[in-house]
């Protein structure tokens, strides 16, 4: 994969903004080159690479906003794009709440980029997969999953003189191992392909698949539980979508609304959004060109703050925290997409040993929120759900349905392990764009409301 | 560099010359235009478009796919190189070559039938309509109101090494409305619909009567704030066609996708509980339940001339009077399962995506009784109007749905609202409780059925009529 670089991405934008006949104008571009090898039953069944460039123009005329997007950086196409957005603005109506475009500001350096990862080819991806499938076959199991390498380049320029560029890479290796009777999951995620360890991923998934036999169904009820990192990321996703933005507070839908400074969950829970943490997949500015800030959301269980884009900042007479979202995915009002949850030093074995009778949850599938105001989540578990008795995993469980408020779950945190980079089920294939640096946890109570068949 | 009409044929020829056993090239050009109004203010007027070419080869028995939005010759040659490199890398992992079910070469054109081009409607008219709807969303407790209208156009050209050369132009129109009502001491209530879409022109937006619909949503949201909690016990549920469209989508459409049987989606979307050995015997639902996949329904969001394998639009039964009988297939999955090509369901969201098995229009077949007769058969029950939260397990067996708005049915008539209603069931148990489907079948559409890696959002259609289900255990949460 080739990086186009700062000049190739930014200069066409700045050139196209010269002589714009409007009050304000902005061009934002995201180039994504995604190479993905999907495998199932130990074979690669889809092997695809796509290089796409999304350019969005926002043009403002007398507080009326026109937006147009296309997928070309050619000068003639950009001129046409700006003209389209200008025409849309002129045909539109004024937004009296329009906050204006961002002003130039010092921009933090991109940290989540690795040139070697950007150059990874199809053969290296296949080689990593072969290591996993060979290990699975050795045990008589079969493996499925994905190996994904992404190169992203974001650039933004506006008529106020703001200019920003950042490259980023993502390396993502996932493995689902299936035995005669069950399944096990493991994955590695990072901004460098060097952080992927196919042998370790295979070993972890195989260990769980081997344990997943003679399943029993768990009756509904409240249980102690160990949530591994992917399961925690799933719960955090609903906190983000339902309660961590200026928009959800304005609408009264957030669990934070009217609660700032109050205890909303347990004292062992702290959460912030930090796109400046070098361990995450962060881009250092948002789609409006505002530098991202670290925002403390919950500290010691106390509601502290939410994230803002320029529009929601305007509603609250405050400043954008750099959290405008990709408009193709989220609505105006802010998006908390780089969540960091405070961890601890408990090892996985300690979390299990601390559980008298409960369950271990590896990850969830197709979750949703039946009660957004309480950041509640419902979803079934998959690929590694086990019964823990007297500090030991004793049985495999049929997938269970969990339904509970995140605030109630995190009120019961007893132990925390070290943080790891994880994505929820929705974000793992791009349906969402949340990345979590989060720990495994042991909680006093998780509510199970049903079960899949054995 | 502008696109040349011969580029696709050139790519396919090049693929064949380099030894591919099969090659196809697909050019897709998409346009989208939307207006949204929030709390009476124009939030945005958006116009977007993209275009590019996807190139797919079967080489050494494995797929390779590459796509680009650059159409100059050098980029296209690079796309060919990359597709072959990916096929060669995959080939080293395969035990058996990919095979494709036979389909005769296709030639022709398909265009949406429409009365009024939605892109040609003046923006001022669209804004005026949304402002009129917004005025009707206003209520004493409405804190957030949103409305939008959108137009979509997709032009697609597919050329294959087997002689298929087909062109399609599909136009869709859609709208969305939402209102959030908040009152001290009550749970916030939301009423919304973002699935008001059809393969049609602006005449569909006229048909929707957005101002009238907005008033109904406002009334529902306001009423839900003060509604009493429902009683938690097994009860009779009647579902609107809108609600059932989603239930059909999630609990029949997805588990009948043949790529789930082959475990192609096991790591993300999951598998199924409907296996090949179950065809013709698995009791999926009651005798009242029949479901059909049909890519020919006029106006359907899953209607087309040909799928992205070049298979012409077809119609096939998935559930026949309660028994599982059929799958949604691509040429690859049909061959792997040794099935005849009864439906073409290989679809890609855009030029940058590999075609995978997707729904077309998957619908609950209509019954014979009138809706009022169905209601008269309920002494004590609930009408569930629109879904809110929904969640399913990885085999599409256990599911959980909650509702935005529930109406109380007493002695065959609607009276007031109830809140806090959700239900959890296993798919065959739920459809087995169906004891009647009305004759008021109507078509719904979804813009964004999510599947695949990387994500592909697909337009799909679902028809349904009101239907009644007995003794459904419900959960109630305040």
Largest interface: A-B, 91 and 78 residues
Largest sheet of chain B: 8 strands, mixed
Instruction: Tell the overall outline of chain B.
Output: globular
The count of strands of chain B amounts to 23
How much helical structure, as a percent, in the residues of chain A?
A: 10-25%
Tell me the number of structural domains of chain A.
2
Main-sheet strand order of chain A equals 3-2-1-4-5-6
Helical percent range of chain B?
Answer: 10-25%
Tags for this model:
heterodimer; A: 454 residues; alpha+beta; PmbA/TldD fold; 2 domains; 6-stranded antiparallel sheet; 6-stranded mixed sheet; 19 strands; B: 478 residues; 8-stranded mixed sheet; globular
In words, what does this structure look like?
The complex is a heterodimer of chains A (454) and B (478). Chain A has 454 residues and is of the alpha+beta class. Chain A has 2 domains: 6-205, PmbA/TldD fold (2-Layer Sandwich), CATH 3.30.2290.10; 214-454, no CATH class. Chain A is built from 11 helices and 19 strands. Chain A has helices spanning 6-16, 75-91, 115-118, 122-138, 198-211, 229-243, 246-250, 310-315, 348-353, 406-411, 425-428; strands spanning 24-40, 43-61, 64-70, 142-158, 163-178, 183-190, 221-227, 271-273, 295-299, 302-303, 338-341, 357-368, 376-389, 392-396, 400-405, 413-416, 420-422, 435-438, 441-451. In chain A, strands 3-2-1-4-5-6 form a 6-stranded antiparallel β-sheet. In chain A, strands 10-9-8-11-18-17 form a 6-stranded mixed β-sheet, with helices on one face. In chain A, helix 1 packs across helix 2 and helix 4 packs parallel to helix 5. Chain A is globular. The relative contact order of chain A is 0.13. Helix content of chain B is 22%, strand content 39%. Chain B folds into 2 domains: 7-226, 2-Layer Sandwich (PmbA/TldD fold), CATH 3.30.2290.10; 235-476, no CATH class. Chain B has helices at 7-17, 73-91, 123-137, 203-208, 210-226, 241-253, 258-261, 331-336, 371-376, 427-432, and strands at 22-38, 41-59, 62-68, 107-111, 142-160, 165-181, 189-198, 235-239, 291-294, 315-320, 323-324, 346-347, 356-357, 362-364, 380-392, 398-410, 413-418, 421-426, 434-437, 442-451, 456-464, 467-472, 474-476. In chain B, the strands form 5 sheets. In chain B, strands 8, 15, 16, 17, 18, 19, 22 and 23 form an 8-stranded mixed β-sheet that branches. In chain B, strands 1, 2, 3, 4, 5, 6 and 7 form a 7-stranded mixed β-sheet that branches. The mean pLDDT of chain B is 96. In chain B, strand 5 (142-160) and strand 6 (165-181) form a beta hairpin. The longest helix of chain B has 19 residues, at 73-91. Chain B is of the alpha+beta class and 478 residues long. Chain B is built from 10 helices and 23 strands. At the A-B interface, strand 1, strand 2, strand 3, helix 2 and helix 4 of A face strand 2, strand 3, helix 2, helix 3 and strand 15 of B.
């Amino acid at each position: 994969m080739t990086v186009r670089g700062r000049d190739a991405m930014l200069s066409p934008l700045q050139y196209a903004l010269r002589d714009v006949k409007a009050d304000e104008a902005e061009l934002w571009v995201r180039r994504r080159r995604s190479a993905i090898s999907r495998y199932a039953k130990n074979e690669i069944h889809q092997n695809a690479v796509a290089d796409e460039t999304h350019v969005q123009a926002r043009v403002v005329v007398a507080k009326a906003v026109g937006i147009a997007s296309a997928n070309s950086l050619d000068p003639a196409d950009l001129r046409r794009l700006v003209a389209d957005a200008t025409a849309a603005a002129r045909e539109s109506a004024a937004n009296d709440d329009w906050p204006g475009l961002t002003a130039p500001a010092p921009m933090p350096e991109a940290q989540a980029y690795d040139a070697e990862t950007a150059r990874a080819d199809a053969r290296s991806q296949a080689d990593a997969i072969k290591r996993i499938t060979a290990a699975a076959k050795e045990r008589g199991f079969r493996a499925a999953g994905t190996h994904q390498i992404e190169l992203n380049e974001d650039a933004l320029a506006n008529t106020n003189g703001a200019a920003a560029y950042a490259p980023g890479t993502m390396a993502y290796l996932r493995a689902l191992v299936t035995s005669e009777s069950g399944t096990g999951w493991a994955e590695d995620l990072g901004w460098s392909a060097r952080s992927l360890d196919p042998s370790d991923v295979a070993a972890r998934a195989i260990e769980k698949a081997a344990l997943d036999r003679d399943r029993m169904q768990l009756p509904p009820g409240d249980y102690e539980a160990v949530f591994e990192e992917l399961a925690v990321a799933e719960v955090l996703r609903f906190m983000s979508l339902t309660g961590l933005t200026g928009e959800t507070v304005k609408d009264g839908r957030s669990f934070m609304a009217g609660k700032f400074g109050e205890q909303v969950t347990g004292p062992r829970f702290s959460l912030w959004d930090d796109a400046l943490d070098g361990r995450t997949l962060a881009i250092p500015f948002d789609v409006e060109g505002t530098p991202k800030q670290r925002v403390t959301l919950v500290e010691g269980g106390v509601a502290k703050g939410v994230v803002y884009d320029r529009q929601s900042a305007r509603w609250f007479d405050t400043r954008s925290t750099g959290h405008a979202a990709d408009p193709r995915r989220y609505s105006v009002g802010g998006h908390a997409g780089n969540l960091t949850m405070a961890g601890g030093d408990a090892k996985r074995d300690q979390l299990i040993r601390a559980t008298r009778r409960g369950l271990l949850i590896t990850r969830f599938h197709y979750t949703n929120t039946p009660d957004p105001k309480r950041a509640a989540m419902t979803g079934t578990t998959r690929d590694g759900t086990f019964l823990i008795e007297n500090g030991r995993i004793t049985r495999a469980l049929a997938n269970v349905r969990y339904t509970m408020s995140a605030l109630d779950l995190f009120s019961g945190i007893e132990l925390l392990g070290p943080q790891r980079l994880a994505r929820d089920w929705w974000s793992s294939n791009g349906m969402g764009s949340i990345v979590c640096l989060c720990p495994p946890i042991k909680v006093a109570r998780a509510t199970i409301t049903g079960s899949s068949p054995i | 560099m502008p696109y040349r009409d011969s580029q696709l044929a050139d790519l396919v020829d090049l693929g064949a010359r380099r030894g591919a056993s099969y090659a196809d090239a697909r050019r897709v050009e998409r346009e989208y235009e939307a207006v949204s109004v929030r709390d009476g203010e124009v939030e945005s007027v958006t116009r977007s478009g993209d275009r590019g070419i996807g190139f797919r080869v079967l080489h050494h028995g494995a797929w390779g796919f590459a796509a680009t939005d650059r159409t100059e010759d050098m980029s296209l040659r690079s796309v060919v190189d990359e597709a072959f490199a990916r096929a060669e890398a995959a080939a080293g992992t395969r035990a058996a070559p990919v095979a494709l079910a036979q389909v005769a070469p296709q030639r022709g054109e398909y265009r949406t039938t429409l009365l009024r081009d939605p892109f040609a409607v003046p923006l001022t008219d669209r804004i005026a309509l949304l402002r009129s709807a917004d005025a009707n969303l206003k209520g004493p407790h409405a804190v957030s109101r949103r409305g939008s209208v959108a137009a979509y156009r997709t032009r697609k050209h597919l050329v294959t090494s087997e002689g298929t050369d087909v062109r399609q132009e599909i136009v869709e129109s859609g709208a969305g409305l939402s209102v959030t009502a908040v009152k001290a001491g009550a749970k916030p209530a939301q009423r919304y619909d973002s699935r008001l879409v059809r393969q049609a022109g602006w005449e569909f937006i006229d048909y929707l009567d957005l101002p009238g619909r907005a008033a109904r949503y406002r009334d529902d949201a306001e009423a839900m704030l003060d509604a009493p909690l429902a009683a938690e016990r097994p009860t009779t549920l009647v579902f609107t066609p809108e609600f059932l469209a989603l239930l059909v989508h999630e609990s029949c459409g997805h588990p009948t996708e043949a790529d789930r049987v082959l475990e192609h989606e096991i790591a993300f979307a999951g598998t199924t509980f409907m296996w090949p050995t179950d065809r013709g015997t698995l009791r999926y639902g009651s005798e009242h339940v029949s479901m059909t996949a049909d890519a020919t329904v006029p106006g359907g969001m899953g209607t087309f001339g040909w799928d992205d394998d070049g298979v012409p639009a077809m119609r096939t039964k998935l559930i026949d009077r309660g028994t599982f009988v059929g799958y949604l297939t691509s040429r690859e999955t049909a061959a792997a399962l040794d099935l005849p090509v009864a439906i073409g369901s290989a679809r890609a969201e855009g030029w940058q995506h590999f075609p995978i098995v997707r729904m077309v229009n998957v619908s609950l077949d209509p019954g014979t009784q009138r809706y009022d007769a169905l209601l008269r058969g309920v002494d004590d029950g609930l009408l569930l109007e629109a879904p809110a939260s929904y969640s399913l397990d990885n085999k599409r067996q256990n599911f959980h749905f909650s509702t935005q708005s529930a109406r109380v049915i007493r002695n065959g008539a609607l009276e007031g609202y109830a809140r806090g209603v959700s239900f959890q069931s296993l798919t065959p148990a739920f459809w087995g409780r169906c004891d009647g489907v009305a004759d008021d079948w109507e078509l719904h559409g979804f813009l964004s059925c999510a599947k695949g890696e990387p994500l592909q959002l697909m337009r799909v259609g679902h028809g349904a009529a009101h239907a009644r289900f007995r003794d459904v255990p419900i959960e109630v949460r305040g």
